[in-house]
Amino acid sequence: MATEWQGEGPVDRLVNDPGSNWPARIGGYTKLILTAITTLGTTGVLQWLQSAGVTSLPAWAVAGITAVIGLLTLLFSPKNKP
Hints:
Layout: E1 3-6, E2 9-12, H1 13-16, H2 22-51, H3 59-76
Antiparallel strand pairs: 1-2
Helix pairs in contact: 2-3
């Protein structure tokens, strides 16, 4: 967090700056990460976990990953509008 000194004490720019847009930035980064996960798909995410050192997952974890990625794919897929 950036702090500036003005007059008597420190002023936190993140809190006091009315032009600060950090919630939108966090939302944008989150959407970018979720879109990347849906682009990989279930197989890609499971292979990525395996390459990261995960040797086995319980069946409920694989089912949960599949369900979450399927839901994210529906939410973040391009919409066909007439």
